[in-house]
Amino acid sequence: MVGALVAGLTACQKRDFLAPPPITVALDLQKTFSDEINTSKFLANCYAPLTGGLDDFGNGQNFAQLSDEAEAGPAYLATNGANFGAVDATNNLDNVYSAMYTNIRRTNVLIANANLMTFTPSSKAKFVAEARFLRAFYYFELVKRIGGVPLLTSAVTFEELKDAAAQQAYKDALKRASFADCVDFIVKELTAAETDLPWAPASDNDRGRATAAACVALKAKTLLYAASKLFNNETPAPAGQPGSMSRPDIGYTSYDKNRWKLAADACRDFLAKNTANGNWYTLYAGGYDKLFTESRDAANHELIWYRQSMDNGAIYSNPGGRLAGYAHNQILVNLVDKYEMLNGKTKDEAGSGYDEQQWWVNRDPRLAFTVLKNDDTFKGYKMEFWSNQGGVAQGQDYQDTYKTSLFFKKFQRQDANTGVQKWHYLRLADIYLMLAEAENEFNGPGDAYQYINIVRKRAGVNMPDLAIGLTQLQMREKIRNERAVEFALEAQRYYDVRRWMIAENIDNGPVYGFKVTRIGGVIKHERYVIENRIFQKRMYLAAIPIAEVYKGTAVEQNPGY
Fold first, then answer.
1. Quick check: helix, strand or coil at residue 464?
2. Can you list the domains of the chain with their CATH numbers?
3. Residue 5 binned pLDDT confidence (cut-offs 50, 70, 90)
4. CA-to-CA distance for 390 and 460, rounded, in angstroms?
5. pLDDT at residue 345, rounded to an integer
6. 419 Cβ contact partners less than 8 Å away, ≥ 6 residues apart
7. For the chain, what is the mean pLDDT?
């Protein structure tokens, strides 16, 4: 109990509920949960392990480097190995299995001891509801990676594992629940938690806590994943592969188009409840760039569920030279190519006006807010990324570890060498694009137009409406591309291409960078292949860590591992 209370509390930095003073006296269950302040502190520990950021895997490594968004600069970084297929049950950067069950156990302890909470009934109900939301969130994080997992809804006690026979009986009973049961559990938990939570944060100090809006939004996200091809495949893959519909623990065993309707209905439920609550959540009008940097802007009502944090990603993301960064995060040209021209055409469409030597001109404004390039003024300097191959001295900000000559501008403040202030799990733009996707898959493009266009025309972006007359397939591609640019570098792309089962095309082949040279006063950009990446089909689902399999439980491994 002491370890749980102290470790989590000292890890938080926010001077409010999410970072109360540390407890240094040992407390038993009765003393912990009969006191409202102590219970609040224990709940803070349930929030403390939340992850996400530009340093997810340490040393500046993150999900963008594992997708077609970014490249890890130094060759020794583990994400480079993962991009060549070096992923198995003993080697997986995205291994959260043990951590999530640790988090789940904390919430189980709080929920199980609700009977000891003799303080204000409304506070008790809110504490339990927040814990149920967190438990559902942690299970969602497991399910979207693995499929069905063991559903543990009570904390294991010493008495249950007091001898070898009890331990063996427990292991024999520990099995993966079906994917369907896991989805149902998450949805039911969120529905129950919603009733005892406010729609929006009651005050600025409550930002980052679970709300009814977060419950509804996460329910929509869960149902969207459940409807997607990886788990609900209209044309099943061969038996024994992800997407095969052949095992109840890795997906549904039969396709049902109506699952898209359930996802769409959940998104509409969010919008209806938001309207009923005075449209508290709105797309942020303060600028797309500032959406990711102004952590305490009271006018930012776009964020539905997020992690409060300071992040050291800037030092890893920045180029070397005058900014003294490590250049670990370098943006791929593959991502740059996804941004449309200002006229709404792709760069390769006739009449687009695209010029490779001025690839940044007349592009979707989100590109300039996301990507740092040569000649940009950034943090007081005009960036110089050209090498010495053009017969002149190299730029002041160039290093020979540069593969793409493009860096992360998103998440960074211009006036400070700091990275993200919040890490977004769910924001209103996601609700609109999830609704567009679910509507298109269930009914076709009709209603999808209005929701994708809302995001395209957000303040500071103002991209033109999509052309009318798109087929369902064309609209699908537009929605997927819109997600790629709107949520660039936000750890969404990695999972999107997996749930759509297109990673074997997207993450299995060449990725591109720019070589930048200067000849006289003329800058030249030369596109080149950095590497040919390898994606194996088993990687659609993460492995159960081999250590868990070796424990002798009845937990079955995912296909291919």
1. coil
2. 1-48 (no CATH), 95-197 (1.25.40.890), 205-311+426-501 (1.25.40.900)
3. very low
4. 37
5. 98
6. 53, 54, 310, 311, 312, 313, 314, 317, 411, 412
7. 92
pLDDT at 311: 63
Which residue type sits at 197?
A: L
243 vs 2 pLDDT, higher one: 243
Are 88 and 541 contacting, i.e. CB atoms less than 8 angstroms apart?
A: no
pLDDT of residue 10: 39
The string over 267-287, giving b where at least 16 C-beta atoms fall within 10 Å of a residue's C-beta and e elsewhere, is bbebbebbeeeeebbebbeeb
The DSSP letter of residue 463 is P
Question: What is the mean predicted confidence (pLDDT) over 348-376?
Answer: 98
Q: pLDDT tens-digit profile of 438-452?
A: 999 999 999 999 999
Its pTM surpasses 0.90: yes
What is 335-371 written as a DSSP string?
HHTTSPBTTS--TTSTT----GGGTTTTB-HHHHHHE
Helix (H) / strand (E) containing 90: none
Tokens standing for 421?
């202030």
List, in order, residues 6 or more apart from 469 with CB less than 8 Å away: none
Q: 115 is written with which tokens?
A: 């009977």
The angle, 0 to 180 degrees and rounded to 10, between the axes of the packed helices 428-443 and 472-486 is: 170
Q: What's the rounded Cα separation, in Å, for the pair 199 and 471?
A: 37
Query: Can you tell me the distance from the alpha carbon of 2 to that of 21, in angstroms, rounded to the nearest whole number?
Result: 13
Please give the Cα distance from 449 to 465 (Å, whole number).
Answer: 8
- Compute the average pLDDT of residues 173-177: 93
Q: What is the average pLDDT across 81-108? A: 95
44 in helix, strand or coil?
helix
User: For 240-319, where are the E strands, in sequence order?
Assistant: 303-308
159 or 349, higher pLDDT: 349
- CA proximity to 367, closest of 358, 435, 419: 358
Question: Are 267 and 220 spatial neighbours (Cβ–Cβ below 8 Å)?
Answer: yes
Please determine, for residue 71, whether its predicted confidence score (pLDDT) is greater than 70.
Answer: yes
In one-letter notation, the amino acid at residue 99 is: A
Angle, helices 36-47/97-112, rounded to nearest 10 degrees: 160
**Buried b / exposed e across 199-223, counting CB within 10 Å, b at 16+?**
bbbeeeeebbbbbbbbbbbbbbbbb
Report the C-alpha gap between 319 and 373 in whole angstroms: 10
Q: Are 263 and 224 in contact (CB under 8 A)?
A: yes
What integer is the mean pLDDT of 3-14?
A: 42
Determine the pLDDT at residue 26.
Answer: 59
What are the distances in angstroms from CA 236 to CA 148, 246, 442, 473, 498? Answer: 18, 8, 18, 19, 15
Q: How far apart are CA 406 and CA 558, in angstroms?
A: 37
**Tokens linked to 529:** 């292949």
Per the DSSP assignment, residues forming a β-bridge with 510 are 532
Sign of CA dihedral 226, 304, 436, 452: negative
Check if the beta carbon of residue 233 is closer than 8 Å to that of residue 255. yes
Give me the residues paired with residue 133 across strands: none
State the number of CA atoms in the 13 A half-sphere of 522 facing the CB.
4
